[in-house]
Amino acid sequence: MDQFTSLISTIVRLAMRSLSLLALLLFSVVIHTTVSTPPPATVPNRTQPYLQPARSPRAIELLGPDGGKRTLKSFAEEYLTEYNGHLLTNDHLWHIERINDNEIALKSRNGLYIKHGWFDWGKTAVAANEWEMLTPVKNDDGSWSFKSRWNKWMSAEYTERGVHFITFESEKKRSEYWWLEPWY
């Protein structure tokens, strides 16, 4: 970059004396900026499953042969369920969608994603953006934990009237361990 800057300053000094050199200066600046500018990165539609095969053994283990169709059982032996006010539904069935080599999103069977919401509450979202991206971590006992981009762990610790609610906690304890089971 220093050579280019010194070349430009030399050409500018000469261009002050000649109009044709000024045209050459403008042409070289345009050529340099168009050649050195990388093309814009394309962002795939994150609401669709990642189409490339998983590269890491952990990702293969997490997604499994059925493409990530899982139930998530908490430390309290209860299944993660999308609450929608109905009884006797299949709202405990989840799709694990691979976003990139390190992150996933948890999508309910009804099409909503788990989101790290304000004040560390678990919320739902219709698309997988950065608030919905989680890094899966395999625990020593075979369970999985999920860490948000804000370094908080998806947890089933908070209970109200016998119901566990999703929160995101700073420490990874027993309530942040999830056992993945395939759909049957």
Topology overview:
Blueprint: H1 2-15, H2 19-36, H3 57-63, E1 69-73, E2 94-98, E3 104-108, E4 113-116, E5 122-125, E6 134-138, E7 144-148, E8 153-160, E9 163-169, E10 179-182
Antiparallel strand pairs: 1-2, 1-10, 2-3, 4-5, 6-7, 8-9
GO molecular function, one term: actin filament binding
GO cellular component, one term: actin cytoskeleton
GO biological process, one term: actin filament polymerization
Properties at a glance:
alpha+beta; Hisactophilin; 184 residues; 2 domains; actin filament binding
Structural class: alpha+beta
- Using the coordinates shown, work out and report the CATH topology of the largest domain: Trefoil (Acidic Fibroblast Growth Factor, subunit A)
The dominant shape is elongated
Helical stretch tally: 3
How much helical structure, as a percent, in the residues? 10-25%
- What is Rg? 25 Å
CATH C-level name of the largest domain: Mainly Beta
How many DSSP E strands? 10
Uncertain parts = 21-54
Number of domains: 2
Query: Helix and strand string, N-terminal first?
Result: HHHEEEEEEEEEE
Please tell me the overall pLDDT.
Answer: 76
* Strand line-up in the sheet with most strands: 3-2-1-10
Q: Which CATH architecture of the largest domain is right?
A: Trefoil
Strand content: 25-35%
Largest sheet: 4 strands, antiparallel
- Distance between the terminal alpha carbons, to the nearest Å? 60 Å
